[in-house]
Amino acid sequence: MKGDEHNTSQPAGDVRSFPLSALFILMAACSVVAALVAPLSRAVGSGKVSLAAAAEASACGAVLVMLMGAVIGLYHHRPGRGLGWGIVTGGGIGMVMGPVVLSPQSAFPSLLTMSLGGAVALLAVAALFRGSARQ
Fold it and tell me: With 0-12 CB in 10 A as exposed, 13-18 as middle and 19+ as buried, what is 124?
């Protein structure tokens, strides 16, 4: 039929999307963050750390990492977009990771192990999907 030569396997609509492997990498990153926040959650639950202190650390972390994200975003090839996304992502990451500084001192060796192991796991998952995409 006439016009069938332009038929693609993608659904009609917005053609911008991301690969499924990006979802797996995002899920791996979320699990690392959840593991890092777990000791603080236990400390707040047991009353060793107050909820107000955790909220304050979250706000401070959000502001500090937001500023870092803004500065890094300015080096994007589109500085306006980089600044905006740097502020948004920096604020989100800082809000979640800021309270980690309040984790009990006994949890720091496991936090170090989880953060290094999580980084290795993220790199491994990314390399695995990148390698499978080439085949």
Answer: exposed
What's the distance, Cα to Cα, between the start and end of the chain in Å?
A: 33
Alpha carbon distance 37, 47 (integer Å): 16
Distance CA 10, CA 47 (A): 53
Percent of the chain with pLDDT over 90: 13
Residue 95 sits at φ, ψ, to 5 deg, of -65, -40
Closest CA to 73 of 89, 58, 57, 60: 89
Rounded to 10 deg, the angle between the 79-97 and 51-73 helix axes is 160
Return the DSSP state at 14.
-
pLDDT tens readout for residues 38-89: 888 888 888 888 889 989 999 999 999 999 999 988 988 888 888 999 899 8
Residues with Cβ within 8 Å of 88's Cβ and at least 6 positions away in sequence, in order, are 69
In angstroms, rounded to a whole number, what is the distance separating the alpha carbons of residues 67 and 90?
7
Q: Which residue has the tokens 């791996």?
A: 28
